[in-house]
Amino acid sequence: MPRTDAFYDKHSLFINSALIACHANTQNSIFRQKDLKFFIELLSNWMETTLKGHCLEVQNTQIQRILESLKEEGLLKKNLIKNRPTYQFTSIGLLEIITRIVSDDSTHDLQNFYFLYHFVSLYRDKMNALIVGQKTTIPTSYSIEIKHLLNPHNLIERQTRKIELEVEKLIKRISEAEEMSNLSKSLIDKNIPIKEIIKKIETRYPYQLNNQRNMTELFKTLSPDVQLIELVDAPIYRAKTLWTPLLNHYNNYLNSLRDLLKLHSYKL
């Protein structure tokens, strides 16, 4: 699907899951716009605490736009029954939508991963049966790939690796902030000129936007009192109020993922 639909991009996990529900729960796997709207609202209702209302509110025009885009992409077929549009998956559509579901990146929207894990672990056998049960022949390589994609254990491991990387980056950032504050304070205590301190800090701890505006140029725009704050107080304060709480959050989240892994292993 051309990535021009902001609503689809933002809520693709619920929309794609609702498309699977439409396929599995309508007669002859033929569904209408109102079917998709209902299942989007039903599935998103499970996560109502993370939404503004009791479910993800979706307009009919948004549903129509999503379905037409999927049709243009070759994933859905459109027919008219009593002058009303109906839709069903093409031979490649179902596999592609399932692939999109399990490929959803929930690193920065952590609650969505819980929905993803729940949906896949609960309905993996059903989704696998839907694909295998299609009239078209599924190559052995596809069958293997499908089982891999629908393995909840693999979902947890993938998410764990992503979060562990975020943890590693935060630990590094906190450490450098502490070192930067300590070095700046030490140099100030030795009466080193501020300009020289900035040069030393810039060389040892270049910030991520240094290629756009280096630290020396940035500090020229700051008043002397703010320069001192940014050299001594700000780095350690950011570490304590921004990155350490986030690090704690990620570590708690990793514990939750480990609990899910134990649950999955128990179910097996």
- Backbone shape: elongated
Largest sheet: 2 strands, antiparallel
Q: In total, how many beta strands?
A: 2
CATH architecture of the largest domain: Orthogonal Bundle
Number of domains: 2
Low-confidence stretches: none
- How many angstroms separate the termini? 36 Å
Using the CA coordinates, give the radius of gyration.
25 Å
CATH topology of the largest domain: Arc Repressor Mutant, subunit A
Tell me, rounded to a whole number, the average pLDDT: 87
Per CATH, the superfamily of the largest domain is Winged helix-like DNA-binding domain superfamily/Winged helix DNA-binding domain
**Widest sheet: strand ordering:** 1-2
Q: How much β-strand is present in the residues?
A: under 5%
Order of helices and strands: HHHEEHHHHHHH
The number of helical elements comes to 10
CATH class of the largest domain equals Mainly Alpha
Q: Which structural class do you get from the secondary structure elements?
A: mainly alpha
Task: Report the helical percentage.
Answer: over 70%
